Amino acid sequence: MYVAVKGGEKAIDAAHAWLAEERRGDTSVAELSVAQIRQQLALAVNRVMAEGSLYDPDLAALAIKQARGDLIEAIFLIRAYRTTLPRLGASTPLETAQMAITRRISATFKDLPGGQILGPTFDYTHRLLDFKLAAEGGVPPAPTAPASLDAVPHVTSLLNRDGLIQTEAEGNATPPDLTREPMEIPTTRPLRLQAITRGDEGFILSMAYSTQRGYGRTHAFVGELRIGTVAVEMEIPELGFSVEIGEVELTECETVNQFKGSKTEPPQFTRGYGLVFGQTERKAIAMSLVDRALRWKELGEDNTGAPAQDEEFVLMHADNIQATGFLEHIKLPHYVDFQAELELVRKLRREALAHGEAAE
Amino acid sequence: MNALSIDTAARKAWMGLLARTAPARLAELMPDLPDHTVLRGPEVGAVMVCGRVGGTGQPFNLGEMTVTRCSVRLTSGAVGHAHVQGRDKAHALRAAVLDALLQTDDAATLEARILTPLRTAETAARSLRATKAAATKVEFFTLVRGEDK
Predict the structure, then answer these.
(1) Interval B23-33: pLDDT, tens
(2) Which residue of B has its CA nearest to A156?
(3) What three-state secondary structure class fits A24?
(4) Which of A61, A164, A190, A196 is placed for a possible disulfide with A175 were both Cys, Cβ 3.0 to 4.6 Å?
(5) Which residues make Cβ contacts (< 8 Å) with residue A126, sequence separation at least 6?
(6) ipTM strictly over 0.95?
(7) Would you say residue B69 lies in a domain?
């Protein structure tokens, strides 16, 4: 039960003033600009855009500054902001095959058309702290090599030529949108992908990891992981044709999974799919594993009771804003609830003690 | 694509270029705007970006992006529209005015003065990124093992 409580305004104002001061920190240290966050904490910005479900790097950087680096708080700010925006429309589906690649690797084929492009990766670094970064200094320009601007094919399209991998069901139906209609279980794959791509990275990572450890194992290989920019195109009613309205950086992961075949399907590889805003590699890989694990019913696999196979468990707990909202609300005044519990415990104790005395 | 007239294809190309360009760069190239009537906006909103399952399958909602739209009419009667990425209203207004101007006799001049520099800069930026990516392309080589001799 909740009751209206008044009072505390002065304390709240003072708390917020102190928060602002703490956010700024020691004034003898230069203030961090939003542009610096956008440029130099780009992966934090990417995560806030992906889980905030709004692609706008400047806003995400501002949210990170306002939230003092608490990324879930920043995501909360972005989610709140996006509810104030009118929906101007929906894009035509992105052509990720046309991505301008900055990174593209395959764990299934060594030599593939377009090659293995490492891009600006943490892989192969030694994870030793680099104390040079503690001092200011210039960075030498990265090397360049002659390049082609041609798009590179998806790895799965190569496998598909021989019918070795399941073809995705085509369609152009308007997808369900969980920001407009509450999610209902059972869901469809498009709705699941929307829920997972905006889900908490840590949660999706743990769910994916659980499948690797044997709770709903799917034997995934990273068929392809690609990062780069893709044009966003939208039909403009007043023009009667579609135009590019911008471009977004994306990470796309396609897993290739073992499949023994079923009564209707021959043995072939199946897929898991991850697509996330920004350079968000860990999330995209995890997303594709969780997507594949949730497809057990459609593929006629056994439900082993693994958490990652339970779409209600996964989808209803993936959203960190819903989770933090419900978790943190218990710190708000529950004086009346607690008073009732206190009365109850006192009464039970009285009865128990009286009973004990009577028994003696 | 074949159904589009050359003009529509050209218009699509410049509208896309103006949507992607940095607002400050466009403002530098086009500091003054001719007389115009604003028909709509500039209005900041969101567009739902859709992906496809597996890259090729059914559409799904990936998340939204911020977009600013604007429509204008010039004194000549030409109408211009813009949908530009981000929340910069001046950017959307400028792009809409330019879209209208590019449909008039001034098109050739503006093409050379504004679109060409923007296109050159975009191509240069894309090429630079592609060449950096190309430098990280793995060249595999096979080690010769003793028993192969």
Answers:
(1) 999 999 999 89
(2) B54
(3) helix
(4) A190
(5) none
(6) no
(7) yes
